[in-house]
Design goal:
homodimer; about 220 residues; alpha/beta; Rossmann fold; DNA polymerase, domain 1; 2 domains; 6-stranded parallel β-sheet; 9 helices
Chain lengths: ~220, ~220
């Protein structure tokens, strides 16, 4: 195996913890927060896949808002402009998981280039990375928006090859979404699935190369191999 | 609006009731049937979208089996060859909803051509249609398998135009899956969503033209318009 020269990270759920959005759902609609955030998230993803296949791309902020409208209607929850605004703002100021900053610094010390490749629109990703203080560690932030299609389309993963000018075999791809790691594996990256729950590997014919429990395991794993 | 010359139906959940599969899940794993059938179905659909985007098409029987494996593992349920075989067989012998035969006969009496357009593989659809005694009513059975991509890709809906030699504006498309009706609407069909639950319309930028509660409403609606 050629040595890796760059590590590309998914954003939501991988570097950034969406817990604060879930907590805000519960604060706004006590007792309904979990149901709302689960349905919101599952519709958000479904809409990215369905719109990609329908060739009706809209950016991730609009898809996320559409999924929120659907989820509120389905659960019989009233939502106004103010609540919608607060929930969307929460998406722009997510905290990173506790191990992220030190894990990224360790990878940088290994002379690896670091990048984000996300479904998020540029307008969502910019404040997210700045707010978390990651601009010094993550050199490149790539949004699918350039290709007007969502993960796991190969055209999305190819963006990382193009922007980093590194061959796909020298790119490691890290995601907590198993299907995203499978998509990246199918494209040709060496892939690391962060299994934060204890879910089975998705049965998509392209299993991730490595399964880790957190980002702190990554540098160790790379040093060994 | 030009008059409709053909009506194209989705199969699973639209003409055919998957209840017997759900009941068998419950019989095989008492107390876990609902959780299993829900996770199985949601993974089945996710895999069709994800594999389509990844360009790793596999036919619906294999996707359905892969989703079943995932769901059993996730829920900690043991599955052997015999149980797997029984569940897959149940998919080939689904009953139709009670109103289907009379509703289709009524549409045929209106000189409409009737077809099925399904994610199902030809080997799944053939016994399904024969077993339900629909071969005399449904003249054309179309599987996405010819295009190696799943709904809601436009190439799938285009298959119906090609096979029926009818313009898209003269085709009515009926599905109980809202996202499927949205995909068909986006392609250019006149669309009928059968809302068997009471779910909101999906927010995909292409809402179905009509919402009905069952197939028996269709002929009435067409006579009025």
């Amino acid at each position: 195996m050629p040595p890796l020269r760059a590590i590309v990270f998914d954003a939501y759920g991988t570097l950034f913890d969406v817990h604060s959005v879930i907590a805000l759902c519960e604060q706004l609609w006590p007792g309904k927060g979990t149901a709302l955030s689960q349905l919101w998230r599952s519709k958000q993803l479904e809409y990215t896949w369905q719109r990609s296949l329908m060739r009706r791309y809209e950016d991730f902020a609009r898809v996320t808002e559409a999924a929120l409208r659907y989820a509120c209607t389905a659960l019989g929850l009233q939502i106004d402009e103010e609540r919608r605004g607060r929930l969307m703002d929460a998406y722009r100021t997510l905290a990173t998981f506790p191990e992220v900053a030190s894990a990224l610094a360790e990878l940088r010390a290994m002379k690896l280039r670091l990048a984000i490749l996300s479904n998020g629109s540029p307008a969502m990703l910019r404040p997210l990375v700045a707010n978390a203080g990651l601009r010094g560690l993550i050199g490149t932030v790539i949004s699918v928006d350039q290709r007007k299609i969502y993960k796991p389309a190969p055209a999305v993963y190819r963006l990382a090859v193009q922007r980093l000018s590194v061959t796909k075999a020298a790119i490691g791809f890290v995601s907590s979404n198993c299907w995203d790691a499978c998509g990246a594996k199918s494209f040709g990256f060496r892939t690391f699935w962060i299994d934060r729950g204890s879910a089975p590997v998705d049965e998509l014919g392209a299993a991730p190369d490595h399964v880790i429990k957190g980002l702190d395991e990554l540098a160790k794993l790379l040093r060994r191999s």
